[in-house]
Design goal:
Strand order of the largest sheet: 4-10-9-8-7-5-6
Number of helices: 16
Helix content: 25-40%
Largest sheet: 7 strands, mixed
CATH class of the largest domain: Alpha Beta
CATH architecture of the largest domain: 3-Layer(aba) Sandwich
Radius of gyration: 22 Å
Length: 448
């Protein structure tokens, strides 16, 4: 067998493509990225319509973040997390000021998965004296790839980790998914049954330490809860003495038009995990923030968690400038304003394309869900199709968008529209126009 020559061939030969069959994998060779665009090896520019993996909130080549990374590399690229540094103090102080009120103590890691792993471990350590260890998650969710995080993941990626990597004590609750209500009800007549059912679970399950939720579900469908849902979940967990963990890995950092998605509903979690947008993805940083009450528990109880790269100086370097850039560029206001425009444009697409079943979102965080039959809501593909290698309709439409110079992430039956928050109206419209054209592929397969 001859040695691979091109960059793509070497990548395929020597590395794994994540969450996919390896056969047929041929990743596009990207050589540059700036602002809201990326450029391939042939010089073709693509609009980054999903902020890479919903993480490049500040776009590409932000000079303030780059300078902070370079300066830190020259000063101190690594130090044992057992030491104090000026950066760690300054970054943590700035972070606590933008976190939801009451979150006052922080643990750093290097990814959203690790941030959630820490959150789950902390919740179980704090709850151990009362014998509680179970965690309630939801079926339409993703919380990470490591043992506890993937055990709390509701989507098919969990299936491959079972039973050998399954962490005992995970229980799944129904989702706030109005388009496909698990109780086959309609809002508001439903009385928000999806929230009320949690009370029933907690009364009957026993030994529950925490509930983990994505305030706005990310990859699995941009599920924006009705206004009563999260406040009611907070009330119920407090009534039962159960900790509430908000997984803001994807929904945080301006994506919904506020620092964190929970801010939209005035909900204050006991633990908040985040990553991605905290550095604009310029460096890998995970954050797990807790209340003072939780922090105080560990004054006289062993904090049994840590990483070699905890509070890594290079990872933390862009955190403060990122916070400053969100403010300087007025990105939350831009997100809210463009969110209104996005809603209008996407609902116009829904009127034109019979393949669109639902449009939902908030800020610059949107999903377009396609269906084979709008009346019955029959999907083109299912979760089983995703893991069996069956060609997905969303991928066919996504490929058409790519031909037009727009890259948009897909998942089973929907598109994730989450461009960098620095995008302008003209650029946003060009991405939606590409989707408008590409959806004709799905329209041809709609059942009469």
């Amino acid at each position: 067998m001859s040695k691979p020559d091109s960059t793509v061939e070497k990548v395929v030969e020597y590395t794994y493509g994540t969450w996919r069959f390896q056969k047929g994998w041929k990743p596009t060779h990207i050589v540059d990225a700036e602002g809201v665009y990326m450029t391939d090896a042939n010089g073709k520019k693509y609009l980054d319509f999903s902020s890479q993996l919903m993480c490049s909130n500040l776009g590409h080549k932000n000079q303030a973040l780059i300078k902070a990374i370079v300066d830190q590399a020259q000063k101190m690229p690594y130090i044992n997390p057992g030491y104090s540094t000026d950066l760690r103090a300054k970054a943590s102080e700035a972070l606590v000021k933008v976190l939801p009120a009451g979150l006052e103590k922080v643990f750093y890691s290097t990814s959203g998965t690790e941030a959630n792993e820490a959150a789950l471990k902390i919740a179980r350590m704090v709850s151990k004296p009362k014998g509680a260890y179970k965690v309630i998650s939801r079926y339409t969710s993703y919380h990470g790839a490591t043992a506890a995080a993937v055990a709390c993941t509701g989507d098919p990626r969990r299936w491959f980790a079972e039973p050998t990597s399954k962490v005992d004590g995970t229980v799944f609750a129904p989702d706030c998914y109005c388009y496909r209500c698990p109780f086959n009800q309609k809002y508001p007549e439903c009385g928000v049954t999806c929230a009320e059912y949690l009370d029933y679970m907690l009364k009957n399950e026993g030994n529950v330490a925490a509930m983990i939720v994505e305030p706005v579900v990310g990859t699995n469908g941009i599920l924006v809860p009705v206004k009563e849902y999260l406040p009611r979940i907070r009330e119920i967990t407090e009534e039962h003495g159960v900790l509430l963990i908000a997984d803001e890995v994807m929904s945080g950092w301006g994506r919904t038009g506020t620092w964190f998605a929970v801010d939209n509903w005035g909900v204050k979690p006991d633990i908040l995990s985040t990553a991605k947008g905290c550095t604009g993805a310029y460096t890998p940083l995970g954050i797990t923030a807790t209340t003072k009450k939780i922090a105080d528990y560990f004054q006289d109880n062993y904090f049994a968690h840590g990483h070699t790269y905890e509070a890594h100086p290079m990872s933390m370097a862009p955190l403060v400038p990122a916070i400053e850039e969100y403010k300087r560029l007025n990105l939350f206001e831009n997100t809210k304003k463009l969110g209104v425009h996005t809603a209008k444009r996407l609902n116009e697409l829904k009127e034109r394309h019979p393949s669109i079943g639902d449009v939902r979102g908030i800020g610059l965080f949107w999903a377009v869900e396609i269906v084979k039959n709008r009346k019955t809501k029959k999907p083109f593909n299912t979760r089983i199709d995703k893991i069996s290698g069956t060609p997905l309709m969303v991928d066919k439409v996504g490929a058409e968008m790519g031909k037009q110079g727009v890259i948009c992430n897909t998942w089973i039956s929907h598109f994730v529209i989450a461009p960098p928050l620095i995008i302008n109206r003209e650029q946003l419209d060009s991405g939606i126009d590409a989707m408008d054209e590409a959806l004709k592929v799905a329209d041809k397969e709609v059942e009469a």
